[in-house]
Design a protein that fits this description.
Blueprint lengths: L2 H7 L2 H10 L4 E7 L2 E5 L3 H11 L1
Antiparallel strand pairs: 1-2
């Protein structure tokens, strides 16, 4: 399985939820009406995102 397989099977919201529930993203604060500010939790994950997506 690779990133293309995941992208083809999931929509954008599902990808964000998967990353949130698995700890790759964390909720920074509840803004309003189920709209959240999210963040990448640590340097290792930031490096992973940078190497994978950028």
């Amino acid at each position: 399985m690779n990133l293309n397989d995941i992208h083809n099977d999931l929509n954008t919201n599902e990808i964000f939820l998967l990353m949130l529930y698995s700890g790759y993203l964390t909720i920074k604060k509840d803004v309003v009406d189920n709209v959240f500010s999210i963040r990448i939790p640590n340097k290792e994950i930031i490096s992973l995102f940078h190497n994978t997506f950028i």
